[in-house]
Structure formats: structure tokens, C-alpha cells
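User: Run a structure prediction on this.
Assistant: Running it now.
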Amino acid sequence: VQLQASGGGLVQAGGSLRLSCVVYGSTFSSYHTAWYRQAPGQQRELVAHITTTGNTNYADSVKGRFTISRDGARNTVYLQMNSLKPEDTAVYYCSTLGYWGQGTVVTVSS
């Protein structure tokens, strides 16, 4: 199983980004998938999670701003991030079945 994350970049506070994670080598729709992030000097934390039935949950810090979704036909999970804050700056990783993508960097300037 391989995961490839993309979509990170530099954005001003208040802006938006959409991250994508393509899953290769797995029957994607059969597994839960999640986005994590790790800021410099911090531990990796769960940002959002989506189950096989489409149920979602979010870290309190991103509720109402971030949305996780999945496209089974494309084997892809998305993370729509709106109203970004400088504290959202981190490397974002997708994960499923214990496998991890390579991470994509999100930098939010104030």
C-alpha cells in the first residue's frame, strides 16, 4: 500500500487549501482513513478521520474549518481547509491501515 499526499503550500491567514491523498495498492473504500499533522517541535496529532461509511470526526482545533471527504472511484481522500490560521502550519500526513504518506507542507503566514 502506498499513499501520496499533495496540495500543500504557502497561504495567508484566512485562506484555503485542499489536500489530496491517493491510495495505491488497496481496496480503498474498505478502510478508515485519517489526516494527521506535525508542527515543528510538536507531536503528531490527529486532524480528521473518516470511516468506511462516511462518518467523520475532527480535532477541536479544526472543527468548523476543515472538512474530510473521500472519493472511492478515485481512491482519494481530501482535506478541505478553510479559514487557515498560522497555528495550522505543519506537515500534513494521510494514513490508512497503518501506512503513511510522505507528508505535504502547509505554511500559513500571518
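The mean pLDDT is 94.
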